[in-house]
Structures are given as C-alpha cells and as structure tokens.
Please model this.
Amino acid sequence: MPTSRLRTTAVFAAVAVVASLLAACSGAGSSGGGKKSINVLMVGNSQMTDIQKLTADNFTKDTGIKVNFTVLDENSLRAKVQDDVANKTGAFDVVTIGAYEVPIWSKNGWLHEVSSYADKDAGFAASDILAPMKTAASGPDGKLYGIPFYGESSMLTYRKDLLAAKGLTMPEHPTWQQVADIAAKLDDKKTGMAGICLRGLKGWGEMFAPLTTVVNTFGGTWFDQGWNAQVNSPEFTQAVSFYTDLVKKYGEPDPQTSGFVECQNAVGQGKAAMWYDATSGAGKLEDPSQSKVAGKLGFAFAPVDKTKYSGWLWSWDWAMPSTTKKSDAAWQFISWASSKKYENLVGTKLGWSRVPDGKRASTYDIPQYQQATSAYYKLVKESIENADPANPGVQKRPAIGVQFVDIPEFADLGDKVSAYVDDVLTGASSVKAALDKGQKDAEKVGALYRNK
Amino acid sequence: MTATTVEYAPDVAPPRRASPGDSFRARMTRRLPLLPALTFTVVVTQLPFLYTIYISLVGWDRDHPELGKKFVGLKNFRAVFADDSLRSAVLVTVELTAFVVVVAVLIGLGLALLLDRRFFGRGLARTLLIAPFLIMPMAAALLWKHAFYNAQFGLINGIINGVRGWFGNHTPTAWSILTDHPLIAVALPLIWQWTPFMMLILLAGLQSQSGEVLEAARVDGASNWQIFRSITLPHLRQYIELSVLLGSIYILQAFDAIYTITRGISNTTNLPFAIFETQVDSGDYGLTSAEGVIVVIGTIIVATFALRLLSSLFKEGTR
Model:
C-alpha cells in the first residue's frame, strides 16, 4: 500500500528529525564525554601546548579523568568564554582567563570561587603563590576566582652578540631613548635585521599591552581619576608617536601583522635584535631545540621614561565557569596543573626553561631552574614584585590595571584605538588623527562611569 | 540554443498537480513526505531568525548582566545607521566581491578553454587545478599570510629580492603587499580558491557544446576567434551568469581570509567581519542582531533583483 508506506516513512523521518534535534540540544548542554572527562578551553600559548602534551600520560593515568582540550587564540578565546559563561551553556569545565577578566567576571557571577578548594587541598600549597598573583586572581569579595598557571611581567630582550659587535652596552634599567638609539644602530636593512620587534597587531591585549606601558611611563593614561578620557593628551600622543616612529624606522616589516607570537618567531629566527614583550617569552627563546639564538640573549628591565619601573603584570589563570557540573574533577586538574609537581614534570621532561613560572615563590629556589634561567629569573621576579596595578603611572587611576583599564568596555575601546594606530603604522593616518578618533571613543566609555 | 518545441509523448503523463477535485486526504498524503524536511528547515532557519528580530529590539549587553534585558524599540537600529564604519564595510564588501568574482571568472574561463582541449595528462592537470578549492579556507588564508606574504620569510618578497639580487641590488625590498595593498592581499587567496569553481562550471558548459555546430562553422571557414566569439561565448552565457551568481553569494560571506590576514585593519572590514567584531568586542547582542537583520533585509532586496535579472537573461538565452 503506497499510502501506508508513505505514512510509515514520514513517521520515521519525523522521529529521526526530533531525535537529532534532541541530540543536538543535549550535546550543547552536557557537552558530551563520560563522567570521568572534563572539557578545558585554553589560550594557545606555549605553556598551554606543553600541558596538552603531558596530560594524557600523567594526569589521566593517575586520576582516570580524561581531559578534552580546546585551544584558541587570545582574542577568540575571550569571546568564546564570555559567550559560554554569560549564556550558561556550560560547555567547559575549566577555562584559562587573564588578570583582566577575573575581577569583572567574578563580579558578574560567571565564575565558581576556588578559595574553598585551594584551602582544603593540602598538597596544593596555596601559601606559596606570589602575593601580586593572588591579588590579581581575586574577586572584589576577596575570594580566589582563578588559580595562576603562569605569571609574567614585561622586559626587554636583546642580542648580546650584536650589541657587543657594535661596542654597545645595554643598561640594566634602560630608558626608551637609549633603546631607540641602540635600535637605530642595530637595524640593518641589508641583512633584513630589524632593530627591534614591537607588537603592532590589532587588539587591546596585543598592541596595547606594551604600548600602554609606554604610555604609563611617558606620563600618560587612558583616563584620569574622574574618568575623563586622556587619549589625545600630550603625554599619550608623545608615547604613541615615539612607539610608532620606532617601529616604522627600526622595527619589523609589516608591524600591523606582528603580535607576541610573530615577534617571538622573528627573534628566535634571528630576524630581530631586540624585543620588548612578556617575560614568559624568554623560555622558548632560550631553548636550543626551538630557537636559533639560545645563549646569545641578554635581558633588561622594561624600558622607562618618567617612572622607575614600567613592567606590566599579567597572569593566565585556571578558572571554573559557574556552570560546570564537574567541579571536583575540574579542581583536580587545576590543582595538578598549578602544582609544584607539574613544574618539576615540565622541568625534567621538557626542560627547565619551559616551566610555567612567575606564580610560586618556591619556583625561584629550584637549583635546576635557576641554572636554566640564570640570565633572567631574578629580573622577572623583581619585575613582578614591583608592578603596581593600582598605581602604574604618574597619576591616580580610576580603575586597576597596568597595561589595561579593568572595565569591560576597555577590550572594545583598546581594539578600536589599536586599529587606528595600525593606520598610523601603515602610513594611512597621522598620530593626531588616530588619537582624536580614539579620544571620542574613550569619552563615550568615560561618560558611562562618570555618571555612576 | 535552438528553438525546438518539446511535445510529450502520449504515454508519458505530465507531472501531476493538485487539482480542486482531489480530496483533502489525497492532497495531504502527497505533501506528507515533504513535511519532515520542511519542519526541519523552519526550525533551523526561521525560528532563529524570528528570535534574532526579537533580540534586535532589546537592550542586552553581555558584559553588564546587572542591567538586565530591556525592550528598547528601534534604538539598536538607529545606532547601526549612525555608524560610519558599517557604511564603509558595505563598500568594502561590494569592492571585494566584484573584484574577486570578475577575476576568478576570467581566469576560470581561460583555464576551462585550455582544459577543453585534448592533451597528454589532462586528468592530472584538472585535478591539480581543482586542488585549491578543496583546501579549507582558514588553512588557505594561513598559507597565504605566512608562506607567501610574510615580508621576511614569504615567497613573494623572496622572489622580488632574488630578482633584485641578479641585478646586484642586495637590499631587501621595503615593499610589502600587506602594507601597500591590503585589500588585494585579502582578495588573492579568495581568487585562488574560487577560480577552480568557476572553471568547473564553465568547463561543463564547454563540454555540452554540440560538436556538429562547431564542425559546421569550421567547414564554413570561420576562424577560431570567430567561433569563440559567435558560438562558444553565447552558448556559455548562462554558465557565466550562473558562476557569477553563485560566486557572488559565497564571496559576499568571505570571513576567514579577512580574519586571518588583516584582522579588518586598513579598510578591509567587510560586513560579515564587521558583525563578528561587534559581537566579539562589545558583547552587545541587541546591536549585533540589529546589524544581522539589516543585512538580511538588504540581501533579500539585492537577491530579488539579481534573480529577476538573471531569470530574464536565461529566458532570452533559450528563446
């Protein structure tokens, strides 16, 4: 009977459609996997790719918990985590978030507090975590909302051999003017050697991380204490002019495409003589298996102008979204990943210069670590201890943050203004035009807070 | 095409249409098989769109959950129309799409004409030419950005510097496509990817040409150019129209190349990327949805005109 056969087929098809829809829904809700598995979303930095390699043979073997990693670049990661936690999809049990997000997100109720876990877990040794890192991972209520995985400040990396060949020396605390003079001498268009590599990639967390520290030490700020925008103030303008001139004259080609990773590669491949960036970038450069310039590098404090230190303060923290249903397993993973034991594992398996450092005081006492990072470990520790998120420049600030302003609107503002500065780098715009546009955007943001 | 009237042979019944005489039950039975697909389409396309329209009328900021969701009327739409950067994104979209489609069709036509001849290794050549189309767009964009465009390691500047070296100039060139021609830098990978698609459609058109007509033309003493101009090109017309239409639909949505190669700086932000950025950066769901709704309305208007124009061309072509 054709009719009844048709009807049966239709019923089957309808059932199949409904079933697939249900499957899709449940997939989004529980995000698949068995009871003994967790989903981790993290940023694609080298410390994170290391843990991805080591998890199956160590953590999973010991605990039986399978870990599914999703790795994204910094910009997409933030958006993904934000959408996930803000809409409570609960796709991830552990996420890496930065120092910028912890205070804002914990206030929004998106994160599960971890103080209670850290206090109960005797093997974790929470008292060993460096004080500035703990502060950076705490919410406004004083509880911990993230556990630092690695912490960093910023510093200047330079090629000792190239400076020596020209009879130059780098002071321990260089000024920006000294750095610019040395860059001019090291820059060699014939061999394609850039005098300095500085981030120009669009993004508040890319270009504006180093650039805001330059603004700070030149006496500028995004906002004054009364939330008045200061983006086209003389100091901010001077800092941006200095930075863009330096990159355009003695920097890497196509600076608008260079971020942390690109500059790290340029230095590692011997195409840039200096690099002002995160302290955590040094480990890979000092590893002979990944870098052509290992052993040839010298390190100096973040260059300054009007302040004594100018290094930034950043940490990548493990956090649990408030939507996770596997918080115990998630904590087990976090506790392992940020433990002394894991640092030791990385040291012995991958090399001591690749240890996720900058979070535990005890890391700096390990003899093998000291030996592997002798060129910079003291400098890094001193930089982290002297970074002051509450007071990073020459004037009082309305919100905390060294290389950022800790309000949710800053990401959008920083991204927009960095795109204007990219137009300066490509020659399409003047510094004044770019910052006048930026000032308008900043005024809109300032007005939101002035009226509060 | 030759004008021939097709008559149905008496033993072949024309496709059945519903007639008023059919009972309700018979009509429903005929439609039932379509129902699952229809339901599915409605569920996955129309319901989200209705929800998007609803969100576009709401003030909903991801970063400020304390403000809640409030009905704000057309405020989001006013904000979209007041935004200069979106207007320039529309212009970039048109420029990029037109450039990529025209170049890809021209190169695709050239390649199709070459592939239409018999030669040794034709199958291999065809497979190799299709290869770019099979590569993931993101992988292709990364390949172009790092392997071809990079000013220090990339192939393009490597070749330029090599040629300069032969002439005794060993200073690497300061020219870089990413800085000097960012929109072309975005367009090249798209052209590279979509040329094989155009080539395949046009090749299918060429191979459906009647050999007898071409032979007759040759017997009448027509030159190769005359044959191409007066027979092949008119025959290909509808195939070219089809490839332009499909190509435009896809290139309008270009995203991977822009995200990977320029991040939308230096005036390379097209509409899809602009909407993506609004959502990612500001987290304002209402504003993003309003942008999406406006784009859908714009697309419907443009597509209606384009389709009407094309269908009239098709009819002319078959007359």
